[in-house]
Design brief:
The complex is a heterotrimer of chains A (about 525), B (about 280) and C (about 325).
Chain A: H1 4-7, H2 10-21, E1 36-41, H3 57-63, E2 71-73, E3 79-81, E4 84-89, E5 95-100, H4 114-129, E6 137-144, E7 147-152, H5 158-165, H6 175-178, E8 198-204, E9 208-213, E10 227-231, H7 236-244, E11 250-252, H8 258-266, E12 270-273, E13 281-288, H9 298-306, H10 310-316, E14 322-324, H11 348-357, E15 370-375, H12 380-395, E16 399-403, H13 407-415, E17 422-429, H14 461-472, H15 476-493, E18 496-502, E19 506-509, E20 512-513, E21 530-531
Parallel strand pairs in A: 1-10, 1-11, 15-16, 15-17
Antiparallel strand pairs in A: 2-3, 4-5, 5-7, 6-7, 8-9, 9-10, 11-19, 12-19, 13-17, 13-18, 14-18, 20-21
Helix pairs in contact in A: 9-11, 14-15
Chain B: H1 2-11, H2 13-35, H3 68-104, H4 106-121, H5 124-135, H6 139-165, H7 169-176, H8 181-217, H9 228-234, H10 244-271
Helix pairs in contact in B: 1-10, 2-3, 2-10, 3-4, 3-6, 3-8, 4-6, 5-6, 6-8, 8-9, 8-10, 9-10
Chain C: H1 6-38, H2 44-52, H3 57-66, H4 73-85, E1 91-92, E2 97-98, H5 99-134, H6 139-153, H7 156-170, H8 188-221, H9 225-232, H10 237-275, H11 280-289, H12 293-321
Antiparallel strand pairs in C: 1-2
Helix pairs in contact in C: 1-12, 5-6, 5-8, 5-10, 5-12, 6-8, 7-8, 7-10, 8-10, 9-10, 10-11, 10-12, 11-12
The chains are: A alpha+beta (about 525), B mainly alpha (about 280), C mainly alpha (about 325).
Chain lengths: ~525, ~280, ~325
C-alpha cells in the first residue's frame, strides 16, 4: 500500500475533487424556497453570539447572519453598498459622506437610521471593533436621517475607507438596545437584534443556534430558506460523520481533517472548495524577538527563515493545504501583493553562511547559540510546526528549547511578557494592509499587553515613515507602489514573516447552492443560500 | 533473609515474569541513546508508513514522518523516569507525613489526617491537570504534580505502621536509653515499617505512568519528550487510516503498567507472607 | 409513632458528624484551588482582552474592576467563600451565565456516564469475582484474572480509542462519538447507543478491580467460622454463598465503590475528550485552558462534594451490611 497518494493534495487534487464530484455551486434554475439548512465550522462554540470587539472567528460566524455592515466586498473585488447605498470622499479625503439605505428595519420592528450608524461608529467601532483602524478618526455627524459624514484628521485613501465599511465585525447595531449600557456585557449579545436576513430564535448551549427567516428583510425575496441552524461539534471526526450522514449540509473553515476531505469528495456527494476566504487568509508566522541582541542584525533573522523548510511543513502538517509565504501580504490579495520580494526560502547553506558572517560561527559540536522557541498552542498544527522549525534550526547548529503553551499562556508570553526568542503564531488579514498587517512592523504597533500586534519589538524609522505615507496616500497607483516597497522592506528586515499561507476549505453537500460566493464567506450573511432537491 | 525474600518473590511466577519484562524495559531505556542516537522527534521519513512497510522503520512512522520505534524506545526512558521520580516524591511526602502523624499523635495527627483527606477529596486527575497548566508543561512539573496527588495512601499506610510499632517494647527500650525522637523514627521504626510502604510505592509508579500518559494524551505534556501518552494523542486524527499510531504506544503503556502491578503483587507476597494465598 | 432503632440512631449520628466534618474540608478545597488558579500565568482577564482586542487602557481598567480583580487576593477569596455559602458560584463571563448554570447544563451528561459506568463496573466486576471464586483455579478463574489484569493496566483513553477503531470505524456498530446523533436522534435509544463505548472505556478499569477484590474477599469469607457452621447445618452451597458469604464479602468492594465515585469524575475528563461527550469534563478542560477561574473552582468544589457525599454513603451502607461495625 503506497501512501504517497495521500500526500498529493493541494490545489491540484482539490481541483479534481471539485470537478469530479460536483455540479458548480451556483444556482441551477430557480432557487428552491423553504426548508432548513444546517451548518457548522471547524472550531467551537463562541462565548457569546455577538462580541463587540470581534472575539475571533466563532462569534463572527454566528453574529454575521444577524447583523449587517454598511458595505460589502464582492468576490470580483468591487465594493457594493449594504446598509449604505453609496459613499463619497470629500475633495481633501479627510471626510466621507455615506448615504444610508432607507426603509431598513431591525428585527424588533424599529427602523434603522443614521442615529444607529452614528452610535455604532462612535461607541462600538471606535472603542472596540475598529479601534486601531480609527486612530485618525475625528468624529461623525448626521446632517439628516439618511446621511452620515465621517471625519478624519488626516487624508484617508478610498480603498482603506471602503474596507473599513466592510470590516468583518463593523456592524450597525441598534442604538435603542445598546445605548447607555456596557456593550460587552449587554444581554442582547446572546440574542442579538440586527437587520440581517436571519432572526435569532434560540441558543441551545453546547449544541446549536437556531435562526429563522427575517420576513421583513430589506432585500426583497431573500432569504430563500426558512431556517438556518449553526451546529457546534466538538471534534473533526464527529463533524465528518455528521456531514457524511447528511445531518450537516455545509461546514466552513476546515470542518474536517484533511484525510476526511478526500474521503468525502470521493463519494461524489460532497464538494470541497478553497473559495470564500480571499479577504480572510490565514497564515502561520514566525517572529524573532528583536530585543534579544542576537536578533539585532537582520542577517541573523533572515538566517532563521532560511533554515526552515516551508514546503515540508505545507506537505506534512497541512497535507498540502498551504503555500510557502513570501511576503507579509498574501497571494490572493489582488490589489497589493507582489511576488517581487526578498526571498528567505529554504536554504540551510545560506543560513549557515549568514550566521558565520554575523559572528556566530559553529565550533565543533557546540551550538552557535540557544533560542527559546514558543509555538502558540491554540492550533494543534503549531506544535508540529514548532518541532519542524526546531529540527531546521538544529540542523544549522542552533540549540532550541521548544515550548507549546496553551492559549492564555501563549498570549501572555508573546504579547505581554515578550518572553520568547522565536514565536510561532497566526494571523488572518484582509487585503487592506492598514492596520492589520502594518501594525506588526511599526513602532506604534508595539502595545504591551495587546495581542496580535508588534511583539517582535521591531522598530525602524524608515518603516514607520513608509507606513505613515501609505496611510494617507489617496492616489491608488502611488499607494500600490508604496505598499510594494513596504513588502520589500519587511522581507529584507525579516522580523516577522509568514511561513505559510493557509488554505481554508469549505466542505458542503452537492445540494447546497450559492455558497462560497463571498470573499469572507464565514462572515457573510448567507442570504442567498438554498438547497437543491 | 535476602535470599528468603527473593525466594518468596520468585515463587509468584507472574511477579517474576513482570520483573523480567520491567528489567528489559529499563535496559531499553538505558540503551536508548546507543540504539537510537539521534533525536527521536526528528522527521526521518515519509509520514504514515505502516509497520512492516519499510524495513528501516519496523513500527512505521507517525503523522509527521517520525520513527515510531525510536520514539517508543526513548519514550521508555521518559516513562520509567517519571514513574520512579513521581513515586519518589509521593513516598517522601507520604512517609514524612505518615511517620510524624503516627509517631507523635495528638493534634499533629489530626492535622495530617485532615490534610490527607483534603488531598483525597479533590479529584486527582483534574488536580494534576490544573497544576500542570499552572506551572507549565515540563517533565519536572508533571512529576511534582503527580507526586502531590499520590502521597495519601502511602501516608495512611505509614501512619498505621507507626501506630502499631511505636508502643512496642524495643521502641520503649530505645526511649529508656535516651535516644532522640529522630533516631527512633528513622533508625528503628522506619526500617520495620517499610515493607508495606514499598509495595504501595511500586503501585504508585504504575499509577504515575497512567497519569502522565493521560496528561500527555490531552496535549499538556512536555513537547520535547517523546512520551508514549503523547504518541497516542497525536494519532487520534488518523484512527481511520493509521490506527497503529495509537495502538502501539498504548500496548507499551499497558505492558509496563501490567508488569509493575505483577511486581507489586509479588512484593506483597514476599513481604507479607501471612496474607498470601487467596 | 415508631421508635427509632439504635442502628438508625447510630446512622444519624454518623451522618451529622460527617456533615460537620465536611465543612472545613470543603473550605480547604476552595482555598487550595483558589490559590493554585491564581498562580497561573495568563489570567482570565488577559484572555478576554485578547479575544476582545481591547487596547484602550481605560477599558481594561474598567474590566478589571467589573471582574473584581483589583481586590487583594484574600479579599477575593473571602468574597468567593461568602458567595458560596449563599450557593452563588460566581459568574462565567466566557459563557455569559452564572457558573452554577453553566455546570448544571453539562451535568446531566456526566451524571449519566458516571452512573452507567459505576453500575457496569459493579455488576460485571462483582459477578466475575463471584464466578471466579466459586470456580477457583479452573479455566474460568484464570480467564477472569487475566481479563482483570488487562483492563486494570490498559489506559482508559487508549481502550476508548481502540474500541472506537474496532466497533465504530471497522465494524460500524457504534457511533464514533458524541451523545446524540446530530439532526436526528435525541431519543433514549439513541443516547443509549452512544453511551455504550464510553461506559465500557470508563467502567472496565473498575470492573477489573472489583473482580479481583471480590474474588479474594469471597475466598476469605468462605473460610470463616460462621460459614462453616451454615454448611454444617445442611444449607446448600448456593444458599450459603448468596445468603452469608456474599453479603459479607461485599464490604471491601463497597469501600472501593466509594473511592470510584470520587475518581470517576476525574476519569470522565479524559473519556469525554475521547468520545466528545458534552459533560462537565469537557467544560472543565475548556475552563482550565481559558483560565475561567469561577468555573474551574465551581467544578472542583462540586466534585469534592460528590466525593464527600459518596464516602458518607459508603459508610452508611457499610454499617447496614455489617451491624457489628460501628464507624467512628
Amino acid at each position: 500500500m503506497v501512501t504517497l497518494t495521500r500526500r498529493v493534495f493541494g490545489a491540484g487534487a482539490l481541483a479534481s475533487g471539485i470537478a469530479a464530484g460536483s455540479r458548480p455551486s451556483f444556482a441551477q434554475g430557480e432557487p428552491r424556497r423553504g426548508g432548513t439548512i444546517v451548518a457548522t465550522w471547524g472550531g467551537g462554540e463562541p462565548q457569546a453570539c455577538y462580541v463587540p470587539p470581534g472575539g475571533g472567528s466563532s462569534p463572527t460566524f454566528s453574529s454575521s447572519k444577524l447583523f449587517e455592515r454598511l458595505g460589502n466586498r464582492k468576490t470580483t473585488g468591487e465594493f457594493e453598498g449594504e446598509l449604505a447605498e453609496s459613499w463619497k470622499p470629500a475633495e481633501d479625503f479627510k471626510s466621507y459622506t455615506v448615504k444610508i439605505r432607507q426603509g431598513v428595519k431591525f428585527h424588533d420592528g424599529k427602523p434603522m437610521t443614521a442615529d444607529d450608524v452614528v452610535y455604532s461608529v462612535d461607541e462600538i467601532w471606535k472603542k472596540y471593533a475598529a479601534a486601531a483602524a480609527l486612530s485618525d478618526y475625528a468624529g461623525i455627524e448626521a446632517p439628516d436621517a439618511g446621511t452620515v459624514v465621517i471625519k478624519f484628521s488626516k487624508p484617508v485613501p478610498e480603498f482603506f475607507f471602503s474596507s473599513l465599511l466592510c470590516g468583518s465585525v463593523n456592524y450597525v447595531v441598534p442604538k435603542h438596545i445598546y445605548a447607555g449600557s456596557d456593550p460587552i456585557t449587554n444581554p442582547a449579545n446572546n440574542a442579538p437584534i440586527g437587520t440581517g436576513p436571519w432572526k435569532f430564535k434560540e441558543w441551545v448551549r453546547g449544541s446549536h443556534f437556531e435562526y429563522v427567516k427575517n420576513p421583513d428583510y430589506w432585500r426583497q425575496g431573500f432569504p430563500y430558506m426558512d431556517r438556518l441552524i449553526i451546529r457546534y461539534v466538538r471534534d473533526p471526526a464527529g463533524r465528518a460523520a455528521a456531514i457524511e450522514a447528511g445531518e450537516i449540509q455545509i461546514g466552513v473553515f476546515n470542518p474536517v481533517a484533511p484525510p476526511d476531505i478526500k474521503r468525502l469528495t470521493n463519494t461524489g456527494k460532497f464538494v470541497a472548495t478553497p473559495k470564500g476566504y480571499e479577504e480572510s487568509v490565514w497564515s502561520t508566522s514566525m517572529e524573532c524577538n528583536c530585543r534579544n541582541p542576537i536578533f539585532a542584525k537582520r542577517e541573523v533573522r533572515q538566517a532563521m527563515f532560511h533554515a526552515v523548510d516551508r514546503s515540508l511543513i505545507a506537505k506534512t502538517v497541512y497535507y498540502g493545504y498551504a503555500r510557502p509565504g513570501t511576503s507579509p501580504l498574501f497571494s490572493p490579495n489582488k490589489e497589493f501583493f507582489t511576488p517581487d520580494t526578498f526571498s528567505t526560502a529554504f536554504d540551510p547553506k545560506k543560513a549557515a553562511a549568514l550566521l558565520d558572517a554575523a559572528g556566530y560561527p559553529k565550533k565543533g559540536n557546540t551550538p552557535r547559540f540557544t533560542v527559546n522557541l514558543l509555538a502558540a498552542g491554540w492550533f494543534a498544527e503549531n506544535g508540529k510546526i514548532g518541532s519542524i522549525v526546531k529540527q531546521g534550526l538544529e540542523d544549522v547548529g542552533i540549540a532550541v528549547n521548544l515550548t507549546v503553551p496553551d492559549r492564555p499562556t501563549s498570549i501572555k508570553r508573546i504579547y505581554t511578557d515578550y518572553d520568547f526568542d522565536i514565536a510561532i503564531s497566526n494571523q488572518a488579514n484582509p487585503s487592506e494592509p492598514v492596520p492589520s498587517t502594518t501594525q506588526y512592523y511599526t513602532t506604534d504597533g508595539i502595545k504591551k499587553g495587546v495581542p496580535f500586534r508588534n511583539a517582535s519589538g521591531f522598530s525602524l524609522p524608515e518603516m514607520d515613515a513608509l507606513v505613515d505615507k501609505i496611510k494617507v496616500e489617496t492616489d491608488a497607483a502611488k499607494r500600490k507602489a508604496l505598499v510594494v516597497e513596504f513588502q520589500k522592506l519587511a522581507t529584507v528586515e525579516a522580523p516577522n514573516l509568514p511561513l505559510l499561507e493557509l488554505e481554508s476549505i469549505t466542505v458542503a453537500s452537492v445540494k447546497v447552492q450559492n455558497h462560497s460566493n463571498d470573499p469572507n464567506y464565514l462572515a457573510a450573511s448567507w442570504h442567498d443560500i438554498w438547497l437543491a432537491a | 533473609m535476602k535470599l528468603d525474600f527473593l525466594g518468596r518473590f520468585s515463587r509468584n511466577r507472574g511477579a517474576l515474569a513482570g520483573a523480567v519484562v520491567i528489567l528489559g524495559v529499563a535496559l531499553l531505556a538505558i540503551l536508548a541513546p546507543l540504539v537510537y542516537p539521534t533525536d527521536p522527534l526528528r522527521i526521518v521519513a515519509q509520514p504514515e508508513l505502516w509497520p512492516g512497510e519499510e524495513p528501516a522503520y519496523p513500527l512505521g512512522t507517525d503523522s509527521l514522518g517520525r520513527d515510531i520505534l525510536a520514539m517508543i524506545v526513548h519514550g521508555a526512558r521518559a516513562t520509567l523516569l517519571i514513574g520512579l521520580f513521581a513515586s519518589a516524591v509521593a513516598t517522601v511526602i507520604g512517609v514524612g507525613v505518615g511517620a510524624t502523624a503516627g509517631y507523635f499523635g495528638g493534634w499533629i495527627d489530626e492535622i495530617a489526617m485532615r490534610a490527607a483527606e483534603l488531598f483525597q477529596t479533590i479529584p486527582n486527575l483534574i488536580f494534576v491537570l490544573t497544576i500542570v497548566v499552572i506551572l507549565g508543561s515540563t517533565l519536572q512539573n508533571i512529576v511534582i504534580a503527580i507526586g502531590i496527588v499520590s502521597w495519601t495512601p502511602i501516608a495512611r499506610m505509614t501512619r498505621a505502621e507507626f501506630l502499631a510499632l511505636r508502643d512496642r517494647e524495643f521502641v520503649q527500650a530505645c526511649r529508656a536509653m535516651g535516644m532522640g525522637n529522630g533516631r527512633i523514627i528513622l533508625g528503628e521504626i522506619l526500617p520495620n515499617a517499610l515493607p508495606p510502604v514499598i509495595v504501595l510505592s511500586s503501585l504508585v509508579v504504575a499509577g504515575a505512568i497512567l497519569f502522565e500518559s493521560a496528561v500527555s494524551f490531552l496535549g499538556l505534556g512536555d513537547p520535547n519528550v517523546a512520551s508514549w501518552g503523547r504518541l497516542v494523542g497525536d494519532g487520534r486524527q488518523l484512527i481511520r487510516s493509521s490506527w497503529y499510531i495509537c495502538a502501539i504506544p498504548g500496548v507499551a503503556i499497558m505492558i509496563t503498567v501490567l508488569c509493575l502491578n505483577l511486581i507489586g503483587d509479588g512484593l506483597n507476597d514476599a513481604l507479607n507472607p501471612k496474607l498470601r494465598d487467596r | 409513632m415508631t421508635a427509632i432503632s439504635s442502628r438508625q440512631l447510630a446512622a444519624l449520628r454518623l451522618l451529622r458528624r460527617r456533615l460537620i466534618q465536611a465543612v472545613p474540608l470543603l473550605l480547604g478545597v476552595v482555598v487550595i484551588n483558589f490559590v493554585l488558579i491564581h498562580l497561573a500565568p495568563g489570567s482570565f482577564l488577559e484572555l478576554m482582552t485578547a479575544e476582545n482586542q481591547v487596547s484602550d487602557p481605560a477599558t481594561v481598567a474598567l474590566l478589571r474592576k467589573t471582574y473584581g480583580m483589583d481586590d487583594p487576593l484574600w479579599l477575593q477569596l473571602g468574597k468567593y467563600v461568602w458567595a458560596l455559602l449563599h450557593f452563588d458560584f460566581g459568574f462565567s463571563y466566557r459563557q455569559n451565565m452564572p457558573v452554577l448554570q453553566a455546570i448544571t447544563i453539562h451535568l446531566p451528561a456526566t451524571l449519566l456516564l458516571m452512573v452507567s459506568s459505576i453500575t457496569l463496573a459493579f455488576a460485571v466486576g462483582v459477578a466475575a469475582g463471584v464466578v471466579a471464586s466459586m470456580k477457583v483455579r479452573t479455566a474460568w478463574d484464570t480467564l477472569v484474572s487475566v481479563a482483570a489484569m488487562f483492563f486494570f493496566a490498559a489506559p482508559s483513553f487508549w481502550l476508548g480509542i481502540m474500541m472506537i477503531v474496532l466497533f465504530a470505524v471497522k465494524l460500524g456498530w457504534m457511533p464514533v462519538g458524541g451523545m446524540i446523533t446530530i439532526g436526528g436522534g435525541g431519543g433514549i435509544l439513541d443516547i443509549l447507543h452512544h453511551l455504550v463505548l464510553p461506559t465500557l472505556a470508563l467502567g472496565l478499569f473498575y470492573a477489573a478491580i472489583y473482580a479481583r477484590v471480590m474474588r479474594s474477599s469471597m475466598l476469605e469469607v468462605s473460610q470463616l467460622d460462621f460459614v462453616r457452621t451454615a454448611r454444617a447445618k445442611g444449607l446448600s452451597r448456593r444458599q450459603v454463598t448468596i445468603g452469608h458469604v456474599l453479603r459479607n464479602a461485599l464490604l471491601p468492594v463497597v469501600t472501593i465503590l466509594g473511592v470510584q465515585m470520587g475518581t470517576v469524575l476525574a476519569g470522565s475528563v479524559v473519556i469525554e475528550s475521547v468520545f466528545s461527550w458534552p459533560g462537565v469534563g469537557s467544560l472543565l478542560f475548556d475552563s482550565v485552558s481559558s483560565r475561567n477561574y469561577p468555573v474551574v473552582l465551581g467544578i472542583l468544589v462540586l466534585g469534592s462534594l460528590v466525593v464527600i457525599a459518596a464516602n458518607i454513603a459508603v459508610d452508611l451502607v457499610y454499617m447496614w451490611l455489617d451491624p457489628r461495625i460501628e464507624i467512628r
